[in-house]
Amino acid sequence: MGDWINNAAKFEVVQYVGNVLASNSNSIIRVIDVGAGTGGNWDQLVQQHPNLELHLWEPYAQSFQILKKRFANSGVFVHQDITKVALEFDVVVSLSVLEHVSDRASHFHVVHRLLKSNGIYICVVDDGHFRYFSRNIISMIAIKEQWRTLMSKLLGARYSIGRYQSKLTTEDLLKLIKGYEFELERIDYRNLPEMKSLIKELDTHEEKFRFAQIWLELEIEMNRLLAGKSFVLEKTFPCRIAYMRKK
């Protein structure tokens, strides 16, 4: 299972959603994770916030079966067919998903349909898969990632839904947003690779959690100081978090 404490971008998102739930503790807040994978740390938020109505959508059959088993009898709604979800949501999130989507326009159409008016969409875009080549040309993980990217380019939408990947820049993301009624609130740049390596050296959850807090605070300050230098931020940080609201 993915541990979001090892990822500043996802750590930020889970804190953001937790704050939304805490500030609306007397209301049911409906949240859906589109492309939920195996569920990350959503179980922790479910335990902490009884006002969370959580839905997880995962089209990849293998991950969907893991989700079904993991969240059975938990009150969490797990979906494989998004066309059967007719609800509207206060918050829609996609965490390192869009770079694995071949038809990105359809993805945004689904998000727009699911989101309430004035609802928030939080989109994490991760290009870490496309940086291994420059860091370590001979590593097996570099070869694997380069191969997946190449096959995705060659086969396009015909390539496996669980393996497709194609780099998405901030400029690409902004072009996609223009086609829908989204108001972009901000873009945060996150996830210095060196910090991801360091946190893995810690042994206890308490140590890792404190490290993650300091890590996030540091990256927030770095983003503030480098505001206006989008090229530097894009080059330095593998992840972008776009916060947008449906008009």
Architecture overview:
- With 247 residues, the protein is α/β, with parallel strands linked by helices.
- The protein folds into 2 domains: 4-127 and 168-246, Rossmann fold (3-Layer(aba) Sandwich), CATH 3.40.50.150; 133-164.
- It is 44% helix and 21% strand.
- It contains 10 helices and 7 strands.
- It has helices at residues 8-23, 42-48, 61-70, 104-114, 132-135, 140-155, 170-178, 193-199, 205-225, 230-236; strands spanning 29-34, 52-57, 77-79, 89-95, 115-126, 182-190, 239-246.
- A 7-stranded mixed β-sheet has the order 3-2-1-4-5-7-6, sandwiched between helices.
- The longest helix has 21 residues, at 205-225.
- The two termini are 35 Å apart.
- The model is unreliable at 133-137 (pLDDT under 50).
Record the SSE blueprint.
Blueprint: H1 8-23, E1 29-34, H2 42-48, E2 52-57, H3 61-70, E3 77-79, E4 89-95, H4 104-114, E5 115-126, H5 132-135, H6 140-155, H7 170-178, E6 182-190, H8 193-199, H9 205-225, H10 230-236, E7 239-246
Parallel strand pairs: 1-2, 1-4, 2-3, 4-5
Antiparallel strand pairs: 5-7, 6-7
What does the largest sheet look like? 7 strands, mixed
- Domain count: 2
Computed over alpha carbons, the radius of gyration is 18 Å
Low-confidence stretches: 133-137
Order of secondary-structure elements? HEHEHEEHEHHHEHHHE
| CATH top level assignment of the largest domain | Alpha Beta
Overall morphology = globular
The helix content is 40-55%
CATH superfamily of the largest domain: Vaccinia Virus protein VP39
From the 3D coordinates, which CATH architecture of the largest domain would you assign? Answer: 3-Layer(aba) Sandwich
Mean pLDDT: 87
CATH topology name of the largest domain, in short, is Rossmann fold
Supply the helix-strand structural class.
Answer: alpha/beta
Count every helix, treating DSSP H or I runs of 4 or more residues as helices: 10
